[in-house]
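Homework help board

Subject: predicted structure for assignment chain

Our instructor gave us this sequence and asked us to write out the predicted structure in token form, then describe one feature. I got the tokens but I'm not sure how to describe them. Can anyone check?
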Amino acid sequence: IGTVNSVTAALASSLMAAFAIAEQMRQEREGRVTAQAELRNAYEAIPIGLFTLTAQGQFSQTNPALREMLGVRSVPKDHWSDHFELGAWDKLQKLVLSGAGQEMEIRSLASLGRDQKWFMVKATMARDKIEGSLQDVTDKVKATGRLLFLAEHDPLTGILNRRGIEKVFEESVSELAEGNAMALAYLDLDRFKLINDLFGHVAGDEVLKQVCDRIRSMLTEGQSIGRVGGDEFV
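My token output:
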């Protein structure tokens, strides 16, 4: 009887251990399924474009954010270079080979009815595929370009300001040693203050813009015009 009880106890203990292990495995499996579902939901909902490419550059997986950036409804089966500027595939390969943590800016292809966009790309090699992300930075690039433009151009007329004039002048002087000629002309609008006094500054601004447009129409390649003061040009 004692032997039977020992065997029964051992079997019961083993059975309980098996049940415990099975329950733990079930919970772990449910946890993995839940985690996978959460990852899938995050992949679909994240506002950053995510993509997977084959080693040859064909799309194999994309999330909704990236498809919206590319202007497609389903996962594109075409090549990376079919959506971005010339040489974009070579640039992406160099980015991947440079190691993790690197990023670059690329432009979309200019297409009829769609404005060209700028994107920030991060990518890395995962086994035999390229995994990466895409962020639309068009507004940032345009704002930066606008600030750079205003740093050297007059906001009213769009021609060079004093800083822009000095930059062009220095570049032209440096080319004199190479035998290139340089000419500098100064133009002042007589009685311009009278226009502002009689018709207002709005009319005066329009006169300045029209004067600049007419002068620019007479310039040839390599010639520039800038606004030194209110009604003074070079």
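Reply (TA_rk): Your tokens look well-formed. For the description, you could write something like this. The mean pLDDT is 83. That's the kind of observation they're looking for.
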